[in-house]
């Protein structure tokens, strides 16, 4: 599992929801012929690019501006022909200075390109000097372009050491022509642009919380659901131990706000909408009524849904789930929640023949696999809430599911993985040349990934299933819903 030692909640910015004029701006700088235009074209994906006019006309004449797409990142990108003229002519001309100063004042980031094949040139040093003098507040990333022919060794040694001497930090190796290193560029840009957006509250977008799985203070929202009489209240009491229900109805609080809260191993756990069924429990005994279960809306508020089943009922019926339970399990998964199935009242089976207990322990996981075929390994816990042995096994499973659900895998790690996975499978569409260029996680809770597919056709369902299966196995993400989307790239 990823351990980055960051104890704070991680914010994840959705760049696709930011209006164009509020997107962070990145300017491409460098002497002529280093590949600025090539990189610009790659970033805006020319054909689908939205090029628009800026108010001052003399700016648009010399500077191209478009919206860059890099994975799920969006930013405005400027190709600095004006700056280039200024530097290459050896003197900074009045008009150009004025113009570039205007441009630089509304730019937050720069990518400084050099040509790794010819090494550092005097003009590169001049661009560096110019940037330091004129754009001291702009965060500059150094990129060694045309790196496609160099192996990793080459990049790590002489060229990057030389480039490092420019004073803009560690260079990254890219190729505007082949797309090499775009993942590294993404990895460097993402946190910088994200920080910029988060520090500018005027920029409207969706910010999702990705709670660090290592953070013990994360408020886990747990919904305990099930038909009447399966033992939800009894289980709740076992979970709460001496704490009981801590939060009662206070004046001004709606019923939705009534929440029970307890600690499990230093972790806060909130119970979602338990008040609803606590009140009615024991009164509504209608078989399988959904009224007492969580509404879909309430399920959405939960991170993990614990569905409680009655072991004795299963033993008697030789089948584990009633229709209402199947519905709620499916809903939980469709809504992207983590699902944990709890088979309660196991003590009643212990009094019976051993084979009955074994049968129940087989039937339940099999049936869950049948009704929710898209996820294998949904955890099933067998407990007796009455005898109080459920707390540890239930909560360990809930927490484990929650941590998987919150996981964030770095793009670098995913793409190292992708290389291995690509060689493991005979890809159906190899003939049509559809292959995955790169793979990135765009969201956690639940983990959501995008496969960028180069080619004319989307990957087949078989290929996508293989990809999902490998992802689940290799990163231990079994038992939770994960989503993979694909995007065709040219
Ligand atoms: P600019 O003057 O900085 O905008 O540079 P251009 O984008 O016009 O590129 C200059 C030349 O370098 C062109 O011939 C490009 O085809 C070539 N070029 C750009 N990027 C790469 C690259 O990553 N690899 C290689 N081999 N050539 C590149
Ligand atoms: P709820 O309606 O889902 O909240 O279920 P309750 O917690 O009110 O439990 C319904 C009945 O089942 C009560 O009589 C409980 O004592 C009993 N019960 C709950 N858990 C267990 C258990 O693990 N074993 C046994 N034998 N009975 C249980």
Give a quick summary of the entry.
This protein is an alpha/beta fold and 490 residues long. Helix content is 38%, strand content 21%. The strands form four sheets. Strands 3-4-2-5-6-7 form a six-stranded mixed sheet, with helices on both faces. A six-stranded mixed sheet has the order 10-11-9-12-13-14, with helices on both faces.
Task: Outline the biggest β-sheet.
Answer: 6 strands, mixed
Number of helical stretches of at least 4 residues: 18
Report the helical percentage.
Answer: 25-40%
The ligands found in this model are: guanosine-5'-diphosphate
Can you walk me through this structure?
The structure is a single chain. Helix content is 38%, strand content 21%. The protein has helices at residues 36-44, 57-62, 81-88, 94-105, 122-134, 152-156, 158-164, 182-198, 232-240, 274-280, 296-301, 311-317, 323-334, 346-350, 354-371, 390-406, 411-424, 461-474; strands spanning 10-14, 25-29, 63-70, 73-80, 109-115, 139-145, 172-173, 206-210, 220-225, 260-264, 267-271, 304-310, 338-344, 380-382, 435-443, 448-454, 483-489. The strands form four sheets. The protein has a six-stranded mixed sheet, with helices on both faces. The chain starts with 9 loop residues before the first strand and ends with a strand. One guanosine-5'-diphosphate (GDP) binds at residues 226, 228-234, 281-282, 344-345, 347-348, 384-386. Residues 25-146, 222-345 form the G domain.
């Amino acid at each position: 599992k990823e351990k980055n030692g960051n104890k704070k909640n991680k914010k994840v910015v959705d760049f696709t929801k930011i209006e164009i004029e509020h997107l962070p701006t990145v300017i491409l700088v460098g002497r002529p012929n280093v590949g600025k235009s090539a990189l610009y074209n790659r970033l805006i994906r020319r054909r689908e690019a939205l090029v628009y006019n800026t108010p001052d006309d003399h700016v648009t004449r010399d500077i191209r501006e478009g919206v860059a797409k890099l994975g799920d990142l969006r930013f405005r990108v400027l190709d600095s022909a004006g700056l280039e003229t200024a530097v290459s002519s050896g003197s900074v001309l009045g008009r150009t200075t004025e113009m570039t100063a205007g441009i630089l004042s509304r730019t937050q980031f720069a990518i400084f390109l050099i040509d790794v094949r010819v090494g550092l040139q005097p003009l590169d040093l001049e661009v560096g000097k110019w940037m330091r003098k004129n754009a001291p507040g702009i965060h500059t990333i150094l990129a060694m372009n045309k790196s496609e022919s160099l192996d990793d060794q080459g990049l790590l040694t002489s060229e990057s050491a030389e480039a490092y001497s420019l004073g803009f930090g560690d260079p990254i190796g890219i190729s505007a022509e082949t797309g090499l290193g775009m993942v590294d560029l993404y990895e460097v840009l993402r946190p910088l642009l994200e920080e910029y957006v988060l520090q500018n509250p005027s920029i409207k977008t969706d910010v999702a919380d990705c709670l660090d799985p290592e953070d013990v203070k994360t408020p886990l929202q747990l919904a305990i659901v099930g038909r009447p009489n399966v033992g939800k209240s009894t289980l709740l009491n076992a979970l709460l131990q001496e704490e009981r229900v801590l939060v009662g109805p206070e004046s001004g609080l709606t019923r939705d706000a009534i929440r029970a809260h307890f600690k499990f191993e230093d972790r806060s756990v909130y119970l979602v909408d338990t008040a609803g069924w606590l009140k009615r429990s024991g009164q509504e005994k209608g078989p399988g009524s959904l009224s007492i279960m969580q509404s879909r809306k309430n399920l959405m508020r939960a991170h993990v849904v614990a569905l409680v089943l009655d072991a004795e009922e299963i033993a008697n019926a030789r089948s584990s789930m009633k229709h209402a339970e199947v519905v709620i399990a499916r809903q939980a998964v469709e809504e992207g929640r983590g699902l944990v199935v709890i088979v309660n009242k196991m003590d009643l089976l212990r009094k019976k023949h051993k084979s009955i207990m074994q049968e129940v322990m087989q039937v339940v996981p099999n049936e869950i696999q049948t009704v929710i075929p898209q996820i294998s390994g949904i955890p099933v816990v067998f407990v007796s809430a009455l005898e109080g042995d459920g707390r540890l096994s239930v909560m360990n499973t809930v927490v484990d599911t929650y941590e998987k659900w919150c996981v964030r895998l770095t793009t670098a790690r995913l793409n190292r993985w992708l290389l291995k996975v690509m060689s493991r499978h005979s890809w159906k569409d190899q003939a049509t040349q559809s292959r995955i260029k790169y793979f990135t996680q765009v969201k956690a809770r639940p983990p959501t990934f995008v496969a960028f597919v180069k080619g004319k056709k989307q990957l087949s369902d078989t290929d996508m299933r293989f990809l999902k299966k490998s992802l689940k196995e290799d990163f231990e993400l079994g038992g939770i819903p994960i989503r993979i989307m694909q995007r065709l790239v040219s």
